[in-house]
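Recall the central idea of this unit: under ordinary conditions, the amino acid sequence of a chain determines the structure it adopts. In this exercise we apply that idea directly, starting from the sequence alone.
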Amino acid sequence: MNNNKKTLTAILTLCLIINACSSIQTTPDYTFTLAVIPDTQNMTDFTRQRDQGFALDSSEIFLDQMRHIASKAESQGGEIAFVASVGDVWQHQTTNYNEDHYRRGLTAIENPHLVGNLDTHEEVFSFEIPTAAAGYEYISEAGIPFGVAPGNHDYDAIWALAAFPPNLDKPEDELELSTEDLGNLHVAGLANFRSVFGSDSDFFRDKDWYISAYNGGNNSAQLFSAGGYTFLHITLEMQAGPPMLAWAQQVIDANPGLPTIVTTHDYMNSQGERVHSPIQNLAIADPQQNGSSQALWDNFLSKNDQIFMLLCGHQLGQALRVDENDYGNLVYQILADYQERGQAGVDAGQALRENGLTWGIGDGWYRELDFDLSGDAALIHVKTYSSHYGAYSSNLQSYPDWYKEQENPELTDAQFYAADEYTIIMGDFFERFGEPQLQGFSFSNPRFQPTIGIGLD
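Accordingly, the structure predicted from this sequence is:
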């Protein structure tokens, strides 16, 4: 081959390499993962650590979980584009009193049935909150946008309400898990929560994707771009009532047409019933500020066609509920709460409770929602992964033996596996939100600036 031919061949080869690289760089990626963190309070509980006589440091399982999620960030070459936390980030409250709520008549009563739920500890400040913040620092450092909905354990105060006295005449073995028998727990104040996850916190201050907050960050809204769309994510306080929903509606109105996900703490049980926690009914206690799960559906979720998904925790187990909204389109409501899983403690030699159950520490389980928007139908592959065991639920032969009896004993083993790994086919997604676009959203648009609301705490 003469020199001219060698030169021409080299030029053609270089052109092919450049074109190939250009093609790789511009190929749309219509897949991504949304990570859902269920209730983590037992992992961050200061009493479930070695220095308190526990068999292992449960906090290390939590920190490993958060490091693992961060390692799967898009910035690290992974697929996780957003993290949603359903709340109950830490375990204990710090007081049994809230002046504003007492002033409005929400006073306390002694309740022997619920006394174990009323413990307050200063270790919240010295251990539980710092541990939680350290975990979310991994998510933040990985550059993953995220939102956290407060759970009942994240409130400052807890007490038994005088307006709902316990039934002290009924034999203990006949008591039912109900407000009528056991009374009603109340929570108030989120100053502790805002110290970590407030709108002015280091996690969210000046972040262009953190677009709105109410009550200083008790409720918040974020944007993230993935899969050819810009998504809106809204977190709501537990059993959110009229003031929170009015703010959330303003966020929706300011961001019309964006596919929207709502995350809140307590919404439905493992049977897929849209009901509140039986002994923590904030809606009947304080209807000015709180509302039922059904009211959340009726007054907000079903009324806004761009909301296609709700995520929740609080009630032990897992469930998927699908309903048509007022426009005839589907809304996927997903429960995941693994807080009472305690096989990791058993493995480490931790004795069982007096009732024969494990000490719940979560075992590092969380949800991965793998979106695939590349085909004729939009798909979400729901998977459940343990960073502690390094495995998906479907790959653990002992999975139902460890957890089914406590969470969903009425299911067969096959059904229990299926409850934690399944595929959602969103047949109306493209019709509702259009075809995916190559270019992501620019967060510099001035209409997405934060609007901070102030209301009762």
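The first strand starts at residue 31 and ends at 37.
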